[in-house]
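Hey L., structure's done. Input below.
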Amino acid sequence: MEGGGSTGGGGLKSALSGLGGLNHDHAFVQHVQQTAAIQDPDQASQYTQHEVNLLKEQADSNPQGIQ
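Output:
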């Protein structure tokens, strides 16, 4: 990893790793549920976890592109 300037995907990867297992009580899941008007809290949790996983994969494969 090169130094200087931006953190690239590293900062994002760190933040995403901190999310860990998302359940319907997690504030981020609740935000997504309200924003996307998802009625079922379990569906909101699954949707949010899926999207976080996609972002993690993108940060691994293309850290510069995720900026």
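The radius of gyration is 14 Å. The CA atoms of residues 43 and 60 lie 26 Å apart.

-- N.
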